[in-house]
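RETRY 2/3 - previous attempt timed out on the joint model. Re-submitting the same 531-residue input unchanged.
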Amino acid sequence: MTAEIIVVTSGKGGVGKTTTSASLATGLAMAGKKVAVIDFDVGLRNLDLIMGCERRVVYDFVNVVHGEATLKQALIKDKRYENLYVLAASQTRDKDALTQEGVEKVLEELGKEGFDYVVCDSPAGIEKGAHLAMYFADHAVVVVNPEVSSVRDSDRILGLLASKTRRAERGDGAIKQHLLLTRYNPARVAVGEMLSVKDVEEILGINVVGVIPESENVLAASNAGVPVILDDNSHAGQAYSDTVARILGEERTMRFLDAPKKGFFQRVFGG
Amino acid sequence: MNARMDTQDACDLRFGQVGIANVRIRRVDAAALCEELERRVRTAPQLVSRAAVVLDLSHLLDLPDDGTVDALLEAVRSAGMLPVGLAYGTSEVEALSRRMGLPLIAKFRAAYEPADGGSIAPPAPPAPAPAPAAEAPRRAEPARQEPEPFAGLGAQHFDGTVRSGQQVYARDRDLVINGAVANGAEVIADGSIHIYGSLRGRAMAGAQGDEKARIYIHDFRAELVAIAGHYRVFEQIPKDLEGQSVRCWLEGEKLLIAKL
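RETRY 2/3 succeeded.
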């Protein structure tokens, strides 16, 4: 048994990788899958905070890679979903503490333990941590913000996904690439301050799998240690639910692409 | 000695590329040479007066003797230019340059060596001009004896998008890109380049100096295009070309771009 490995990556920092990893893993668990989410950002661990399990970290990913703890000891069971586990990063080590063989061993062991999905939360950049996070992936969720520097960095990452991964090196068929647009603000797109979905798709040459609107709920959810996908009342949470469904193969129409304050008449008459 | 006090070296030794004019001698006639160059200096004094030039003797069937070369150098000087060395050449030219006390300025010396001691080989294409060509992959090894680079190799094809940070190079042939070339990506060919997606990055054709190379772009949004080292950068994409299908070619020193 092998697990499907999904890397959440972007190149640029601060675009919403960890938020997305947490919501994606939770969403897959809600769909009944057995899921582990791993924080590859060794030295700057954040995922445990967003998942709300920061006070339960005893052993971490680096301990497992170095054989200082077993995988079972290090996996933290989520308090909301029993089929969801978190593997935290070490805050005291750096990214060189990870090795390719060590990461491979952990991923294989997760497959043997019956996990359906492993979500790898990549650090920013294109150095070792990011490389190891993407190397074994079957799917990649490339998180991009609607601004030019983020788009360019994502383009770079898409190039690396197509060349510097195990699938590429073995010629096993390409990694499935999903483009996820986050922090989308339709009102600012309308006045030309932000790139539109169409602009981003055109520049990168692939279609988006989801568009997450910019929302205050994301920050509130992060601070509370609750993945925003669990916030049914927020547009961001609903957009993440749609995205997870699409990654699982469901068809769903894109929502929240238009500025919400459009007048009633404009809407009726197709403004 | 205050050497201990000096934290900096007396000088830096740096290698850079500079443009330099090349006086290619077609006839051994110092007087005619002087007259011709004087005419050039008069028409474009800003450009060529006191310009550093190298003397290129590779077009002459036989190498002139030292006295004649001296006369030619003197002719260049009296016309108002400053000869600083001899260009290209065979080992004979090298020996000559030593006797004259002048540097030999050559890119690929071996390429100009007569194949079998017979007449001098045809002049190879000019070395790529400075600037963007510096980023093109340069080879240290000498160019081939017979400059027939594009024969029978066909084009190199690239399927999909060339992503930011990637570089695709077609050695000795044309390059066909089926997808787009992203910002910060580079496509380079010794022959021509065809891009069927949009070009947002850089395209450099004729990387080894083929001035007949061309670039065809389906959707023009380039950062830079270059042919045989002559390049144009686009800080602003001209409105009339943006998003259009275009071709780029070289007319003399000028890189031209027009809608298809």
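The helical segments of chain B are 30-43, 45-48, 66-78, 91-100. Closing ticket.
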